[in-house]
Amino acid sequence: MKAGSSAKSIKLESVRKSYGSQTVLDDLNLHVEPGEFVSMLGPSGSGKTTVLNLIAGFDDPDAGSVLLDGRNMTGIAPEHRNIGVVFQNYSLFPHMSVAENIEFPLRMRGVSKAERREAVGSALFLVALDGFGDRKPEQLSGGQQQRVAIARAVVFNPDVLLMDEPLGALDRRLRGDLQLEIKTLHEELGITIIYVTHDQEEALSMSDRVVVFNKGRVEQEGKPREVYRRPATLFVADFLGDSLSISATASGDSVTLRELNTEVAISGHDQRGPVRLLWRSDHVSLAGAADPGDRILSMPATVETVAYAGTITRMRVKTATGDIGVIEAPEDSEFAAGDAIVLALDLDKASLLPADNDNT
Amino acid sequence: MKTSSTSQIRKASGYRSLVTSLLMTPILIILLAPSLIIIPMSFTKVPFLSWPPKGFSAKWYARLFDSPEWLASLWHSVEVALLSTIIAVLLGVPAGVSLALKQWPGKQFVLALIITPLVVPTIVVGIGMYKIYAWLGLFDRSGLVAAHVMIGVPLVVVTTMSAARQVNPVLLRAARSLGAGPVSTFFRVTLPIISSGVLSGAVFAFVSSWDEVVIAKFLSSPTYETAPVRMWAQITERVDPTVAAVSSILFAAALLLMISLMVVERVRR
Question: What pTM was estimated for this model as a whole?
Fold first, then answer.
């Protein structure tokens, strides 16, 4: 297990895939650099698992191609692709011990017994399960089973590691621990990882790059901070976390908020017509006594629901423009439903998105 | 409070198990008595089948082992049962796995076709085979094995299918991704997981050939008889307790096979 040396790139070019009359992937393009950790994020049925199946070779695209390190993989059976796959759960062979599970891919590659034993030992060490080799999968906890599955998927130095919601079946705390372990593993092995999840926090915290899927298309891709702070569409904004957005009309550098009879200047966009101005929840603050300045929009609103969340208090508010959104207030704020408040919206922190009737 | 309620529960479950055993005992007796009654009858002293048996003697067993005809028929039964079981497993396991795990057109039709011999009355199958096998020249051993394969295959297919349905398809994908081709995946992952289903299918196939008499009657000849066919012939001619001795041996063999299957299952777990 040498760091970085075996990392390969993955490229999907104009890939289409349908099952029956249902189009699952529609002209999909995706590029993953060698050694990159890319998360594919999206609701169930958005096509992300299909992408994984096409890369692993469990399925072939109807059109377009999947390239591994520049080589077209169409028609190559999964066992000849040298790609590691970690599944959601219960993928360990129940009739084999932990050690036998981990050495399975090495056995398939004709590795000698002595080498197998050494590799199994270091793989168990890598996932902090030394001494568990003789156990049967059923004797392990869910988290331990997934760590064995990871060890089994990396022990043969795969060119790429695919992970299909590997932590989906685990409880929240364990998930956090394993997220860090997988991240460490990525740094130690330098391997290319494609990670499928529907958990936005997981995608944001682990990846070099996030690809957001919706209805068989890539809705947006970019660094975690980019997609979180600068969502390209309302779908991405909603999927990646809480926000507040208000409707407006854009023409050139000026944006009109009809309900407030206000016109503000926002540059650096090419939107025209109906748009939405969007702020992440933590970028919305409550207007104080101090002079707000000309880049701050004061927006009257009503509190609808208050939810205490430990480090902050989350509130659902209805603005004077009639838009509903979620904002974050300090942990010790004592608002109640029905309270009238004034929000301070920083125009320089707003994202300008096309108004979208599809996903409301 | 707590102790009294647990003791009540214990008492209730005690009653329940008492009722269960009261109901079960007559059922078990009705089911087992006809099989078991033959054993004491085989140790009788008098030269005809009688109940209750008179005296104790092993002479019918001695006579059995002195008779080349009886020994030949027992050996033929073993031979036919073993060969037909092996062939039924070789044909039935791949079919069962494919029917349970793969999608292909005409699956339901093929399944119905395989199951047919279990549904059609044996006498009908026997007559049909008699005609067709005569035409094909299949008699004696080859004919009997072919016929018993036909009976054994559906049994193996059904038990294999129910075992294979429990196999998580993710395991098969995992095996492929780890470098195992379809053949290695079958032998190293699928087969070990479904082995107990395959084993019980094989035992059923063996036993159903072991005591099959209707079809065997059509396809056997005086030079190649199985034990049940010879028993049938004997019992229609005279009432010799040797038949009871053979029956006891057939019964003991089947019982032994079933018990060893159960032991194997328990050891596995």
Answer: 0.81
